[in-house]
Amino acid sequence: MGKIIVAGIGPGSPEDITPAVLEAVREADAVVGYKYYFQFVEAYVKADCECIDTGMKRERERAEMAFQLAEQGKTVVVISSGDAGIYGMAPLLYEMRDERAKMRDERLEMKDERVEIISLPGISAFQKAASLLGAPIGHDLCIISLSDLMTPWSLIEKRIRAAALGDFVTAIYNPKSHGRYWQLNRLIELFLQEGRSAETPVGYVRQAGRPEQEVKVTTLGAFDPEDVDMFTVVIIGNSQSYVWNETFITPRGYYSHPSLGEGMGVGPSIMHESFRTILSEMQHPDVPTWRLWPLLHAIHTTVDFGMEDCLWMDDRATELLYNKVSDGSLKHIVTDVSMAAAGIRKGALQRLGIEVHCYINDPRVADICRTQSPSLGEGIGVGSPSLTRSQACMRLAAEEYPDALYVVGNAPTALFEICDLVRKGKLHPAGIIAAPVGFVHVCESKHAVKTLRDIPKIIVEGRKGGSNLAATLVNAILTYDDAAQLRPGRDL
Protein backbone atom coordinates (compact mmCIF):
# COMPACT_ATOMS: atom_id res chain seq x y z
CA MET A 1 0.00 0.00 0.00
CA GLY A 2 1.35 3.40 -0.97
CA LYS A 3 0.85 6.75 0.65
CA ILE A 4 -0.49 10.22 -0.12
CA ILE A 5 1.47 13.30 0.80
CA VAL A 6 -0.71 16.37 0.66
CA ALA A 7 1.62 19.33 0.31
CA GLY A 8 1.19 23.07 0.45
CA ILE A 9 3.45 24.60 -2.20
CA GLY A 10 3.12 28.16 -0.90
CA PRO A 11 1.68 31.14 -2.74
CA GLY A 12 3.69 30.74 -5.93
CA SER A 13 7.30 31.83 -5.62
CA PRO A 14 9.99 29.10 -5.57
CA GLU A 15 11.64 30.54 -2.45
CA ASP A 16 8.39 30.09 -0.53
CA ILE A 17 8.24 26.31 -1.05
CA THR A 18 9.51 24.51 2.03
CA PRO A 19 12.41 22.04 1.78
CA ALA A 20 10.16 19.23 3.03
CA VAL A 21 7.68 19.81 0.21
CA LEU A 22 10.43 20.00 -2.41
CA GLU A 23 11.86 16.68 -1.18
CA ALA A 24 8.42 15.06 -1.37
CA VAL A 25 7.88 16.31 -4.92
CA ARG A 26 11.32 15.02 -5.98
CA GLU A 27 10.60 11.53 -4.59
CA ALA A 28 6.99 11.28 -5.79
CA ASP A 29 5.88 8.52 -8.15
CA ALA A 30 2.90 10.69 -9.08
CA VAL A 31 1.90 14.31 -8.55
CA VAL A 32 -1.77 15.28 -8.64
CA GLY A 33 -3.12 18.81 -8.63
CA TYR A 34 -4.93 21.70 -10.25
CA LYS A 35 -3.22 22.32 -13.58
CA TYR A 36 -2.40 25.99 -12.82
CA TYR A 37 -0.16 24.93 -9.90
CA PHE A 38 2.06 22.55 -11.85
CA GLN A 39 4.14 25.43 -13.18
CA PHE A 40 5.49 25.92 -9.65
CA VAL A 41 6.74 22.34 -9.16
CA GLU A 42 7.43 20.94 -12.64
CA ALA A 43 11.13 21.78 -12.38
CA TYR A 44 11.47 19.45 -9.37
CA VAL A 45 9.64 16.25 -10.41
CA LYS A 46 11.70 13.24 -11.49
CA ALA A 47 11.67 12.08 -15.09
CA ASP A 48 9.40 9.07 -14.61
CA CYS A 49 6.95 10.85 -12.31
CA GLU A 50 3.33 10.62 -13.44
CA CYS A 51 1.76 14.12 -13.43
CA ILE A 52 -2.01 14.34 -13.34
CA ASP A 53 -3.54 17.79 -13.59
CA THR A 54 -7.19 18.81 -13.74
CA GLY A 55 -9.19 21.98 -14.01
CA MET A 56 -11.00 23.92 -11.33
CA LYS A 57 -13.87 22.48 -9.26
CA ARG A 58 -12.63 18.90 -9.75
CA GLU A 59 -11.23 18.41 -6.27
CA ARG A 60 -13.08 15.13 -5.60
CA GLU A 61 -11.84 13.70 -8.89
CA ARG A 62 -8.24 14.60 -8.03
CA ALA A 63 -8.59 13.03 -4.59
CA GLU A 64 -10.01 9.81 -6.03
CA MET A 65 -7.14 9.62 -8.53
CA ALA A 66 -4.66 10.03 -5.68
CA PHE A 67 -6.20 7.10 -3.76
CA GLN A 68 -6.27 4.88 -6.81
CA LEU A 69 -2.56 5.52 -7.43
CA ALA A 70 -1.65 5.09 -3.76
CA GLU A 71 -3.54 1.81 -3.60
CA GLN A 72 -1.24 0.63 -6.38
CA GLY A 73 1.68 1.12 -3.99
CA LYS A 74 2.78 4.51 -5.28
CA THR A 75 3.87 7.57 -3.35
CA VAL A 76 1.50 10.30 -4.46
CA VAL A 77 1.93 13.99 -3.80
CA VAL A 78 -1.24 16.07 -3.97
CA ILE A 79 -0.34 19.71 -4.31
CA SER A 80 -2.33 22.69 -3.05
CA SER A 81 -1.38 26.33 -3.21
CA GLY A 82 -0.55 28.00 0.07
CA ASP A 83 -1.12 25.60 2.94
CA ALA A 84 -3.02 22.45 1.98
CA GLY A 85 -5.00 22.57 5.21
CA ILE A 86 -6.37 26.11 4.62
CA TYR A 87 -9.10 25.90 1.98
CA GLY A 88 -6.95 23.21 0.36
CA MET A 89 -7.02 19.49 -0.40
CA ALA A 90 -6.04 18.12 3.03
CA PRO A 91 -9.53 18.05 4.63
CA LEU A 92 -11.05 16.37 1.55
CA LEU A 93 -8.38 13.66 1.46
CA TYR A 94 -8.81 12.83 5.14
CA GLU A 95 -12.59 12.75 4.77
CA MET A 96 -12.34 10.56 1.70
CA ARG A 97 -9.97 8.20 3.52
CA ASP A 98 -12.49 7.78 6.34
CA GLU A 99 -15.38 7.29 3.92
CA ARG A 100 -13.48 4.65 1.98
CA ALA A 101 -12.61 2.93 5.28
CA LYS A 102 -16.29 2.75 6.20
CA MET A 103 -17.09 1.21 2.85
CA ARG A 104 -14.36 -1.42 3.34
CA ASP A 105 -15.62 -2.21 6.85
CA GLU A 106 -19.05 -2.85 5.44
CA ARG A 107 -17.45 -5.38 3.07
CA LEU A 108 -15.59 -6.91 6.03
CA GLU A 109 -12.24 -5.84 4.66
CA MET A 110 -9.29 -5.11 6.91
CA LYS A 111 -8.85 -1.57 8.25
CA ASP A 112 -5.05 -1.75 7.95
CA GLU A 113 -5.38 -1.51 4.16
CA ARG A 114 -6.09 2.19 4.44
CA VAL A 115 -3.77 4.54 2.59
CA GLU A 116 -1.44 6.52 4.80
CA ILE A 117 -1.85 10.31 4.52
CA ILE A 118 0.88 12.75 5.44
CA SER A 119 0.23 16.49 5.46
CA LEU A 120 3.09 18.91 4.83
CA PRO A 121 2.41 22.56 5.72
CA GLY A 122 3.05 25.41 3.34
CA ILE A 123 3.17 29.17 3.54
CA SER A 124 -0.41 30.36 3.21
CA ALA A 125 -1.37 33.19 0.87
CA PHE A 126 -2.48 35.32 3.82
CA GLN A 127 0.92 34.88 5.46
CA LYS A 128 2.73 35.88 2.29
CA ALA A 129 0.40 38.84 1.82
CA ALA A 130 0.96 39.89 5.42
CA SER A 131 4.74 39.82 5.02
CA LEU A 132 4.48 42.04 1.94
CA LEU A 133 2.24 44.51 3.77
CA GLY A 134 4.43 44.69 6.88
CA ALA A 135 3.06 43.17 10.09
CA PRO A 136 -0.75 43.32 9.93
CA ILE A 137 -1.43 39.99 11.69
CA GLY A 138 0.48 40.65 14.90
CA HIS A 139 -2.53 39.96 17.12
CA ASP A 140 -5.60 37.72 17.23
CA LEU A 141 -6.86 36.97 13.74
CA CYS A 142 -9.34 34.94 11.77
CA ILE A 143 -9.70 33.86 8.14
CA ILE A 144 -12.97 33.96 6.21
CA SER A 145 -13.69 32.72 2.70
CA LEU A 146 -16.42 34.58 0.84
CA SER A 147 -17.05 31.62 -1.45
CA ASP A 148 -20.59 30.38 -0.85
CA LEU A 149 -20.30 27.34 -3.16
CA MET A 150 -20.29 24.94 -0.20
CA THR A 151 -21.16 27.26 2.70
CA PRO A 152 -24.50 29.11 2.92
CA TRP A 153 -24.12 32.87 2.77
CA SER A 154 -26.22 33.23 5.93
CA LEU A 155 -23.54 31.34 7.85
CA ILE A 156 -20.72 33.33 6.23
CA GLU A 157 -22.47 36.53 7.25
CA LYS A 158 -22.66 35.36 10.88
CA ARG A 159 -18.92 34.72 10.82
CA ILE A 160 -18.26 38.16 9.34
CA ARG A 161 -20.27 39.82 12.09
CA ALA A 162 -18.46 37.78 14.75
CA ALA A 163 -15.08 38.81 13.33
CA ALA A 164 -16.06 42.46 13.32
CA LEU A 165 -17.54 42.37 16.83
CA GLY A 166 -14.55 40.45 18.17
CA ASP A 167 -12.13 43.05 16.77
CA PHE A 168 -10.18 40.34 14.97
CA VAL A 169 -7.66 41.08 12.28
CA THR A 170 -9.45 39.40 9.39
CA ALA A 171 -7.97 37.81 6.28
CA ILE A 172 -10.37 37.40 3.37
CA TYR A 173 -10.00 34.56 0.87
CA ASN A 174 -12.00 34.34 -2.38
CA PRO A 175 -13.10 37.96 -2.08
CA LYS A 176 -14.52 38.21 -5.58
CA SER A 177 -15.04 36.37 -8.86
CA HIS A 178 -17.06 36.90 -12.02
CA GLY A 179 -20.09 35.29 -10.42
CA ARG A 180 -19.54 36.60 -6.88
CA TYR A 181 -19.30 40.37 -7.15
CA TRP A 182 -21.35 41.70 -4.22
CA GLN A 183 -20.14 39.69 -1.22
CA LEU A 184 -17.09 41.85 -0.46
CA ASN A 185 -19.25 44.99 -0.53
CA ARG A 186 -21.54 43.34 2.00
CA LEU A 187 -18.60 42.39 4.22
CA ILE A 188 -17.44 46.02 4.33
CA GLU A 189 -20.97 47.13 5.15
CA LEU A 190 -21.20 44.62 8.01
CA PHE A 191 -17.82 45.63 9.46
CA LEU A 192 -18.86 49.28 9.52
CA GLN A 193 -22.26 48.41 11.01
CA GLU A 194 -20.62 46.45 13.81
CA GLY A 195 -18.42 49.35 14.83
CA ARG A 196 -15.19 49.02 12.88
CA SER A 197 -13.92 52.50 12.05
CA ALA A 198 -13.81 53.68 8.45
CA GLU A 199 -10.16 54.58 9.17
CA THR A 200 -9.26 50.93 9.84
CA PRO A 201 -6.28 49.96 7.65
CA VAL A 202 -6.94 47.49 4.85
CA GLY A 203 -4.19 45.82 2.85
CA TYR A 204 -4.67 43.67 -0.19
CA VAL A 205 -2.24 41.70 -2.29
CA ARG A 206 -2.91 40.27 -5.72
CA GLN A 207 -0.88 37.29 -6.95
CA ALA A 208 1.29 37.26 -3.82
CA GLY A 209 4.77 35.95 -4.55
CA ARG A 210 4.24 35.80 -8.30
CA PRO A 211 5.52 38.05 -11.09
CA GLU A 212 2.14 39.79 -11.35
CA GLN A 213 2.23 40.72 -7.65
CA GLU A 214 0.46 43.95 -6.59
CA VAL A 215 0.47 45.32 -3.03
CA LYS A 216 -1.88 48.08 -1.88
CA VAL A 217 -2.87 49.71 1.41
CA THR A 218 -6.00 51.76 2.02
CA THR A 219 -8.72 52.18 4.68
CA LEU A 220 -12.01 50.40 5.22
CA GLY A 221 -13.92 53.51 4.22
CA ALA A 222 -11.92 54.10 1.04
CA PHE A 223 -11.56 50.45 0.00
CA ASP A 224 -12.93 49.79 -3.50
CA PRO A 225 -13.96 46.12 -3.96
CA GLU A 226 -13.73 46.60 -7.72
CA ASP A 227 -9.94 46.67 -7.32
CA VAL A 228 -9.67 43.00 -6.32
CA ASP A 229 -10.21 39.64 -8.00
CA MET A 230 -10.12 35.93 -7.11
CA PHE A 231 -6.30 36.00 -6.90
CA THR A 232 -6.37 38.67 -4.17
CA VAL A 233 -6.05 38.25 -0.41
CA VAL A 234 -7.52 41.06 1.69
CA ILE A 235 -6.43 41.78 5.28
CA ILE A 236 -8.54 44.07 7.47
CA GLY A 237 -6.87 45.42 10.61
CA ASN A 238 -8.30 45.60 14.10
CA SER A 239 -8.96 48.73 16.15
CA GLN A 240 -5.25 48.99 17.06
CA SER A 241 -3.86 48.59 13.55
CA TYR A 242 -2.21 51.54 11.86
CA VAL A 243 -0.14 52.47 8.83
CA TRP A 244 3.25 54.08 9.25
CA ASN A 245 5.52 54.93 6.31
CA GLU A 246 3.41 52.73 4.03
CA THR A 247 3.76 49.79 6.46
CA PHE A 248 0.61 48.12 7.81
CA ILE A 249 1.14 47.19 11.48
CA THR A 250 -1.03 45.55 14.12
CA PRO A 251 0.80 45.95 17.43
CA ARG A 252 1.10 43.07 19.85
CA GLY A 253 1.36 45.43 22.81
CA TYR A 254 5.09 45.71 23.46
CA TYR A 255 5.18 49.35 22.45
CA SER A 256 2.49 51.95 22.55
CA HIS A 257 3.88 54.83 20.51
CA PRO A 258 4.07 53.59 16.94
CA SER A 259 6.06 56.49 15.59
CA LEU A 260 8.79 56.45 18.19
CA GLY A 261 8.76 52.88 19.37
CA GLU A 262 8.72 54.00 22.95
CA GLY A 263 6.70 52.36 25.69
CA MET A 264 3.77 54.13 27.27
CA GLY A 265 3.73 55.60 30.70
CA VAL A 266 0.94 54.52 33.01
CA GLY A 267 -1.28 57.52 32.22
CA PRO A 268 -1.09 57.30 28.42
CA SER A 269 -1.49 53.51 28.60
CA ILE A 270 -4.73 53.82 30.56
CA MET A 271 -5.99 56.54 28.25
CA HIS A 272 -5.10 54.45 25.20
CA GLU A 273 -7.07 51.47 26.52
CA SER A 274 -9.96 53.74 27.50
CA PHE A 275 -10.20 55.16 24.01
CA ARG A 276 -10.31 51.66 22.53
CA THR A 277 -13.10 50.76 24.94
CA ILE A 278 -15.04 53.92 24.12
CA LEU A 279 -14.69 53.29 20.40
CA SER A 280 -16.02 49.74 20.78
CA GLU A 281 -19.08 50.95 22.74
CA MET A 282 -20.02 54.00 20.70
CA GLN A 283 -23.30 53.89 18.80
CA HIS A 284 -21.85 55.71 15.80
CA PRO A 285 -18.07 55.28 15.63
CA ASP A 286 -18.02 55.66 11.86
CA VAL A 287 -17.66 59.43 11.80
CA PRO A 288 -14.92 61.59 10.27
CA THR A 289 -11.70 61.79 12.26
CA TRP A 290 -12.14 65.52 12.88
CA ARG A 291 -15.35 64.69 14.73
CA LEU A 292 -14.29 61.38 16.29
CA TRP A 293 -11.16 62.71 17.99
CA PRO A 294 -12.81 65.42 20.16
CA LEU A 295 -15.76 63.10 20.73
CA LEU A 296 -13.49 60.41 22.20
CA HIS A 297 -11.90 63.03 24.45
CA ALA A 298 -15.31 64.30 25.56
CA ILE A 299 -16.63 60.83 26.41
CA HIS A 300 -13.37 59.92 28.15
CA THR A 301 -13.60 63.01 30.36
CA THR A 302 -17.31 62.77 31.20
CA VAL A 303 -17.96 59.00 30.93
CA ASP A 304 -21.08 60.13 29.08
CA PHE A 305 -21.91 58.53 25.75
CA GLY A 306 -24.60 61.15 25.38
CA MET A 307 -21.80 63.29 23.98
CA GLU A 308 -22.44 61.51 20.69
CA ASP A 309 -25.71 63.41 20.47
CA CYS A 310 -24.81 66.76 21.99
CA LEU A 311 -21.30 67.52 20.72
CA TRP A 312 -21.85 69.85 17.76
CA MET A 313 -19.14 71.31 15.58
CA ASP A 314 -18.69 73.13 12.32
CA ASP A 315 -17.52 71.10 9.36
CA ARG A 316 -13.87 70.05 9.88
CA ALA A 317 -13.64 72.35 12.93
CA THR A 318 -10.96 70.30 14.71
CA GLU A 319 -8.86 70.03 11.60
CA LEU A 320 -9.17 73.75 10.80
CA LEU A 321 -8.17 74.76 14.31
CA TYR A 322 -5.25 72.36 14.37
CA ASN A 323 -4.05 73.78 11.06
CA LYS A 324 -3.89 77.18 12.73
CA VAL A 325 -1.86 75.64 15.54
CA SER A 326 0.39 73.91 13.05
CA ASP A 327 1.09 76.96 10.91
CA GLY A 328 1.76 79.14 13.97
CA SER A 329 -1.17 81.51 13.50
CA LEU A 330 -2.84 80.36 16.72
CA LYS A 331 -0.57 81.38 19.59
CA HIS A 332 -3.03 82.33 22.34
CA ILE A 333 -5.95 80.71 24.14
CA VAL A 334 -8.38 82.65 26.34
CA THR A 335 -10.53 80.84 28.94
CA ASP A 336 -13.40 82.18 31.00
CA VAL A 337 -12.26 80.56 34.27
CA SER A 338 -8.99 79.36 35.72
CA MET A 339 -10.19 75.75 36.01
CA ALA A 340 -10.55 75.51 32.23
CA ALA A 341 -7.04 76.92 31.83
CA ALA A 342 -5.66 74.42 34.33
CA GLY A 343 -7.03 71.46 32.36
CA ILE A 344 -5.16 72.29 29.15
CA ARG A 345 -2.01 70.16 28.96
CA LYS A 346 1.05 72.16 29.86
CA GLY A 347 3.31 69.88 27.86
CA ALA A 348 1.29 70.52 24.70
CA LEU A 349 1.32 74.27 25.25
CA GLN A 350 5.08 74.28 25.73
CA ARG A 351 5.65 71.97 22.76
CA LEU A 352 3.56 74.16 20.46
CA GLY A 353 4.53 77.56 21.85
CA ILE A 354 0.99 78.55 22.90
CA GLU A 355 0.04 80.73 25.87
CA VAL A 356 -3.18 80.49 27.89
CA HIS A 357 -4.77 83.61 29.36
CA CYS A 358 -7.50 83.81 31.99
CA TYR A 359 -8.52 87.25 33.31
CA ILE A 360 -10.88 86.18 36.06
CA ASN A 361 -8.42 87.28 38.77
CA ASP A 362 -7.07 90.29 36.89
CA PRO A 363 -7.53 93.47 39.02
CA ARG A 364 -8.64 95.37 35.93
CA VAL A 365 -11.78 93.21 35.72
CA ALA A 366 -13.35 94.86 38.77
CA ASP A 367 -12.79 98.32 37.26
CA ILE A 368 -14.46 97.28 34.02
CA CYS A 369 -17.43 95.87 35.93
CA ARG A 370 -17.87 99.20 37.76
CA THR A 371 -17.37 101.55 34.85
CA GLN A 372 -18.88 99.80 31.83
CA SER A 373 -22.48 98.88 31.18
CA PRO A 374 -23.68 95.48 30.05
CA SER A 375 -24.59 95.54 26.39
CA LEU A 376 -26.65 92.39 26.54
CA GLY A 377 -28.32 92.69 29.95
CA GLU A 378 -31.88 92.94 28.74
CA GLY A 379 -31.39 90.42 25.96
CA ILE A 380 -30.29 87.66 28.29
CA GLY A 381 -32.28 88.66 31.31
CA VAL A 382 -29.32 89.18 33.59
CA GLY A 383 -31.39 91.57 35.62
CA SER A 384 -28.38 93.53 36.88
CA PRO A 385 -27.11 96.97 35.87
CA SER A 386 -23.49 95.83 36.13
CA LEU A 387 -21.31 93.55 34.04
CA THR A 388 -20.57 90.05 35.22
CA ARG A 389 -16.91 89.30 35.81
CA SER A 390 -16.96 86.84 32.92
CA GLN A 391 -18.22 89.53 30.55
CA ALA A 392 -15.54 91.91 31.75
CA CYS A 393 -12.91 89.23 31.19
CA MET A 394 -13.96 88.81 27.57
CA ARG A 395 -13.84 92.57 26.94
CA LEU A 396 -10.36 92.78 28.36
CA ALA A 397 -9.22 89.73 26.37
CA ALA A 398 -10.66 91.19 23.16
CA GLU A 399 -8.41 94.21 23.52
CA GLU A 400 -5.26 92.17 24.03
CA TYR A 401 -5.81 88.91 22.12
CA PRO A 402 -8.60 89.42 19.61
CA ASP A 403 -7.49 86.49 17.44
CA ALA A 404 -7.09 83.87 20.20
CA LEU A 405 -9.00 80.62 20.58
CA TYR A 406 -11.80 81.46 23.03
CA VAL A 407 -12.77 78.70 25.44
CA VAL A 408 -15.85 78.94 27.70
CA GLY A 409 -16.50 76.17 30.19
CA ASN A 410 -18.53 77.89 32.87
CA ALA A 411 -20.26 81.21 32.20
CA PRO A 412 -22.95 81.66 29.53
CA THR A 413 -22.57 85.43 29.96
CA ALA A 414 -19.00 85.11 28.68
CA LEU A 415 -20.31 83.37 25.60
CA PHE A 416 -22.93 86.06 25.00
CA GLU A 417 -20.25 88.72 25.37
CA ILE A 418 -18.05 86.97 22.78
CA CYS A 419 -20.98 87.00 20.35
CA ASP A 420 -21.59 90.69 20.93
CA LEU A 421 -17.93 91.60 20.51
CA VAL A 422 -17.70 89.59 17.28
CA ARG A 423 -20.83 91.24 15.88
CA LYS A 424 -19.38 94.67 16.69
CA GLY A 425 -16.11 93.82 14.95
CA LYS A 426 -14.07 94.08 18.16
CA LEU A 427 -13.19 90.39 18.26
CA HIS A 428 -12.25 87.92 15.54
CA PRO A 429 -11.34 84.68 17.31
CA ALA A 430 -9.44 81.83 15.69
CA GLY A 431 -12.15 79.55 17.04
CA ILE A 432 -14.62 79.11 19.87
CA ILE A 433 -15.20 76.23 22.23
CA ALA A 434 -18.59 76.70 23.88
CA ALA A 435 -19.21 74.45 26.87
CA PRO A 436 -20.85 76.49 29.65
CA VAL A 437 -22.83 74.32 32.06
CA GLY A 438 -25.96 74.98 34.07
CA PHE A 439 -29.63 75.90 33.90
CA VAL A 440 -29.84 79.68 33.33
CA HIS A 441 -29.14 81.10 29.84
CA VAL A 442 -26.85 78.15 29.01
CA CYS A 443 -28.78 76.78 26.05
CA GLU A 444 -29.53 80.28 24.76
CA SER A 445 -25.86 81.27 24.78
CA LYS A 446 -25.00 78.23 22.68
CA HIS A 447 -27.75 79.02 20.21
CA ALA A 448 -26.30 82.52 19.91
CA VAL A 449 -22.74 81.39 19.20
CA LYS A 450 -23.95 79.12 16.39
CA THR A 451 -24.90 82.22 14.39
CA LEU A 452 -21.27 83.35 14.12
CA ARG A 453 -20.10 82.49 10.65
CA ASP A 454 -16.63 81.71 9.37
CA ILE A 455 -15.37 80.86 12.88
CA PRO A 456 -14.66 77.18 13.63
CA LYS A 457 -16.75 76.22 16.64
CA ILE A 458 -17.12 73.20 18.89
CA ILE A 459 -20.26 73.38 21.03
CA VAL A 460 -21.62 71.13 23.77
CA GLU A 461 -25.31 71.55 23.14
CA GLY A 462 -27.91 71.71 25.88
CA ARG A 463 -27.23 72.12 29.60
CA LYS A 464 -24.16 69.90 29.67
CA GLY A 465 -20.65 71.29 29.72
CA GLY A 466 -18.03 72.31 32.25
CA SER A 467 -14.46 73.51 32.50
CA ASN A 468 -13.01 70.02 32.35
CA LEU A 469 -14.95 69.31 29.17
CA ALA A 470 -13.89 72.59 27.60
CA ALA A 471 -10.25 71.84 28.43
CA THR A 472 -10.32 68.32 26.99
CA LEU A 473 -11.72 69.67 23.72
CA VAL A 474 -8.74 72.02 23.55
CA ASN A 475 -6.43 69.06 24.18
CA ALA A 476 -8.08 67.21 21.32
CA ILE A 477 -7.23 70.11 19.01
CA LEU A 478 -3.63 70.34 20.21
CA THR A 479 -3.05 66.60 19.60
CA TYR A 480 -5.04 66.23 16.41
CA ASP A 481 -1.98 64.96 14.56
CA ASP A 482 -2.29 61.81 16.73
CA ALA A 483 -5.90 61.22 15.69
CA ALA A 484 -5.34 59.19 12.52
CA GLN A 485 -3.46 56.51 14.48
CA LEU A 486 -5.70 56.89 17.55
CA ARG A 487 -2.76 57.58 19.88
CA PRO A 488 -4.11 59.53 22.86
CA GLY A 489 -2.15 60.61 25.89
CA ARG A 490 0.67 62.69 24.46
CA ASP A 491 1.90 65.45 26.80
CA LEU A 492 0.34 63.86 29.88
What does this structure look like?
This protein is of the alpha/beta class. The chain folds into 3 domains: 121 residues, Cobalt-precorrin-4 Transmethylase, domain 1 (3-Layer(aba) Sandwich); 123 residues, 2-Layer Sandwich (Methyltransferase, Cobalt-precorrin-4 Transmethylase, Domain 2); 217 residues, 3-Layer(aba) Sandwich (Rossmann fold). The chain is 38% helix and 17% strand. The protein contains 18 helices and 19 strands. The strands form 4 sheets. A 6-stranded mixed β-sheet has the order 14-19-18-17-15-16, sandwiched between helices. The protein has a 5-stranded parallel β-sheet with strand order 3-2-4-1-5, with helices on both faces. A hairpin with a 2-residue loop joins strand 12 and strand 13. Helix 2 crosses helix 3, helix 5 runs parallel beside helix 6 and helix 8 packs antiparallel against helix 18. About 3% of the residues have low confidence.
Characteristic terms for this protein:
492 residues; alpha/beta; Cobalt-precorrin-4 Transmethylase, domain 1; Methyltransferase, Cobalt-precorrin-4 Transmethylase, Domain 2; Rossmann fold; 3 domains; 6-stranded mixed β-sheet; 5-stranded parallel β-sheet; 19 strands; 17% strand
